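Teaching assistant's notes for section 4

Start the section by putting this record on the projector. Ask students to predict, before seeing the second block, whether Nop domain-containing protein will look compact or extended. Collect guesses on the board.
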Amino acid sequence: MATLADSFLADLDELSDNEAEIPEDNDVDAADMEEDVDGDLADLENLNYDDLDSVSKLQKTQRYTDVIQKVEEALNKKESEVLFQVVDIEDDPEYQLIVDCNALSVDIENEIVIIHNFIRDKYRLKFPELESLVHHPIDYARVVKKIGNEMDLTLVDLEGLLPSAIIMVVSVTASTTTGKPLPEEVLSKTVEACDRALDLDSAKKKVLDFVESRMGYIAPNLSAIVGSAVAAKLMGTAGGLASLAKMPACNVQLLGAKKKNLAGFSTATSQFRVGYLEQTEIFQTTPPSLRMRACRLLAAKSTLAARVDSIRGDPSGKTGRAFKDEIHKKIEKWQEPPPAKQPKPLPVPDSEPKKKRGGRRLRKMKERYAITDMRKLANRMQFGVPEESSLGDGLGEGYGMLGQAGSGKLRVSVGQSKLAAKVAKKFKEKNYGSSGATSGLTSSLAFTPVQGIELSNPQAHAHQLGSGTQSTYFSETGTFSKIKRT
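Reveal the predicted structure now:
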């Protein structure tokens, strides 16, 4: 890496020689750029060192020491001794300390991640699968410190450090691991890094406790909705109340969300995309089927409350309590059963007289269009007796009860309906045909041996032969003559 740094410095020297006529401002920028490059190179070198002090430097800074000391002094004070007399919250020393605590908590998080990478790189030779089973840095540091160089995990009690399901998976995986015990020097550095990560975690808890104790004054409306502990965590993660107020609700919902290791178990009961809002009382008391919906509503109202607190719109917290009541009412409304289906009332009876008149004409019309007896029998079926059909075997048009009584043939009532009698009477009254003949066998043409065909009156000899149909062949009394053979 030193060779890389020398090459960068040589390039910068060449650029400064070639561009000697650049104004003074650009020279200042070039100097700043050179400092940034040196700082980046230094960071890369620090991350590659084996010494823990060169990797983790936050605990040795003056800012860390001062803030932790002020936090401890503030925590030792009683709440009655804390006086807030400044009207503008930005000028309040307590608020300034809270802002410093929020910034320090972010730095502590980054420092814990750096130490976690150091521990993971060192302990990978001993238990390479552990980093994929335990994702949280603090839990990983505690497990590494507890296990040490022990190869048989059945002798190590991990109860209380990890969930029982994860403990089982870690124990099974450790029995088949390919890792080897670490040297004493590497193990001592790893344990020291674990202690430092745990110290940073305890310092972070102190900072969050202090912020939580002052949240009733700093953010009363936000604390009324989500509680002081969750409000302090949201502010600490967002970087202050002003940053939280500028954040959209969808991002507030994700603050504090971390990857969950289910170790092959079901994901049905796990809540994804939920951060610190999962720890609120409203979220925990909501039924599981409505929790994601309640979380979105909670994030939206929390953002509004943070914006009210950022401008000191309501120091009494009345707005936050109103938001909380509104959230409870909406969740209760979601859980209400659907309204019962009301019986539909009958229409109002129509007592006005009908315009359609009754009487003889209506009765005649009903008789004219009434269903016949034959159709009634065809529509009716007798129990236990198969009906006949037009095509047989139950195919075609069924006959119903037609022909079921007696010989099995179709029988229709002989009685003529009134409508048929009326039609027959009208048909007789009309005189069809031009010759007035009453028989279809009579004709006005006659065949004679003299002229062949001639016209004749068929009624001329009616008195002799009777009607036109009466003859030796078509006569009711006439018979065939017998000729004797000779």
